[in-house]
Amino acid sequence: MNHLPHWWQNGVIYQIYPKSFQDTTGSGTGDLRGVTARLDYLQKLGVDAIWLTPFYVSPQVDNGYDVANYTAIDPSYGTMADFDALVTEAKARGIRIVLDMVLNHTSTEHEWFRQSLNKESPYRQFYIWRDGEPDALPNNWRSKFGGNAWQWHADSGQYYLHLFAIEQADLNWENPAVRAELKKVCEFWADRGVDGLRLDVVNLISKDQTFPCDLDGDGRRFYTDGPRVHEFLQEMSRDVFTPRKPDDRRRDVLHLAGALPAVRRAGRPRAVDDL
């Protein structure tokens, strides 16, 4: 097949926040049909791809970046049939689809997190739980949204890590089972015709496993651009984006992670090319 292997490097990618883009139902908020309705206009603008911010099932604590179900459409945006129609109509106009994918954390309403509240459940290891006391935090890391980055759960008798809102529990990427489930999520959307993924805050997925206190800062130096980020992304690239058959465009799928200085450190100047 003759197509650009690096279309994202010189293409025009238009970001769309569905909630405020166009309302077709009279609900007062935008929806997926509203995006489809404007594809002709986007084509005239010369758009090569549209990047959709999260429209997955979510309690909307963080405008959809608190995902409660990675493979279901939030009813406020429409249905999976609406999404499939959007993909079909976009491709008919030569427009690719890129999705925002939030893999550092989930909503605390996600079924994985609910299961993790049981210490005996295998899902306990899907998140970062640490011992402590109600008035004695595991460390002094700060949340991006203010306050400490740990939330006490009385029934569990432990804290869980949330680098963002209390309702956004960080996933434990050190657990292979977590990575396996996230690969399934990416495969689900790739199989529905998605051309790319923008991996939100993916440079935070590798934490210092000693979870030390930061005497000189807010803790970010112990979880930003961590030692296994490149390894984790290589694994995703190999297992998710490798073609399964000759006509499979899967390897052409973009996994845009934004700035990843960790993979350009001394001795690995071309590490990004391995992704």
UniProtKB/TrEMBL annotation:
Single GO molecular function: alpha,alpha-phosphotrehalase activity
Location of the Glycosyl hydrolase family 13 catalytic domain: 15-268
Single GO BP term: oligosaccharide catabolic process
SMART domains tied to this protein: Aamy (SM00642)
Keywords: Glycosidase, Hydrolase
Coiled coil: none
Matching InterPro entries: GH, GH13_cat_dom, O16G_dom_2
Family assignment from sequence similarity: Belongs to the glycosyl hydrolase 13 family.
Protein name as catalogued: Alpha,alpha-phosphotrehalase
Protein species of origin: Klebsiella pneumoniae
Organism taxonomic ancestry: Bacteria, Pseudomonadati, Pseudomonadota, Gammaproteobacteria, Enterobacterales
Annotated gene: treA_2
